[in-house]
Amino acid sequence: MTSLITSDLDRTLIYSAAALRLTGPDAMAPRLLCVEVYESKPLSYMTEAAAALLGELAGHAVFVPATTRTREQYARIRLPGPAPRYAICANGGHLLVDGESDRDWQRAVAARLAGECASLAEIRAHLLDAADPAWLLKERVAEDLFAYLVVERPLLPDDWIGELSAWAETKGWTVSLQGRKVYAVPKPLTKSAAVRELVRRTGAERVLAAGDSLLDADLLLAADHAWRPGHGELADTCWAPRHVTALPERGVAAGEEILRRFTATVTEAGHGLTGAARGVDAPAAPSGDQGRTAAAGATPAATATLPASGGAEAQAAP
């Protein structure tokens, strides 16, 4: 059986120093491997045990990082093991094949965005108009696909996100608060659509996934089985459809446990990588966003329209 394993990165598999959540005596802390450097400083880590597990997965499954990071931000990450042939960046806006963005996929995504939601320019203008300079630090556009704000979280009004989300819903967009970042993402822009395309290309018979945020819900719903850590928005909302395992581990220990579960699942019955997983066909247009197992559980109450968007990474540097 060919397995495709896809995972969110930040705060799922890799962690900034602030997100590690190390517990216990310092002398008992796990050894850490730096997997990202930004402006000559270490930024993201995983445990050495997690690194070893990830390195082993390449022989058993097609591993696909799935991130809301831009291609530039993703390129800073140096994951252990062979470089993944496929990667999903910009929340599904870019499907990388051997490090290059698939142009046919770009065109298919652009067509969906043009036909199914309001323009980025309209959303961005509203974000800037609604934001208060007292707590707005930065405003950014990612890959000309979506926008986000960097805010002083303690100063953000309690009802501001709810009001923005209600407005964005009428425009075909989704809003998510991730750490200090407020993301506005088009509903048609999803990691799960890109995963379905990769299932078609590779002939994968099973999809395993992991993620931590409300914007990862569609990715997890599209999988045959999925895991979420004990931290993050999904944990905060107690979101756990029947095929999603809620892990108790938090911080970098959760990333290690997720990789342990991936490895155990693909090796327990000798389910290795088959030749079909290496083939590449011409891309199809992104499909609808119900996900394979959307009926397996309700989406988080705070974002009733999610599974229409993919994961977000709060720690990635701008």
UniProtKB/TrEMBL annotation:
Annotated stretches, region: Disordered: 274-318
Positions with biased composition (Low complexity): 291-312
InterPro entries per the UniProt record, alphabetical: HAD-like_sf, HAD_sf
One GO MF term attached to the UniProt entry: hydrolase activity
Alphabetical UniProt keywords: Hydrolase
Record carries keyword Coiled coil: no
Top-level taxon: Bacteria
Gene3D superfamilies for the chain: HAD superfamily/HAD-like
Name this protein carries in UniProt: HAD family hydrolase
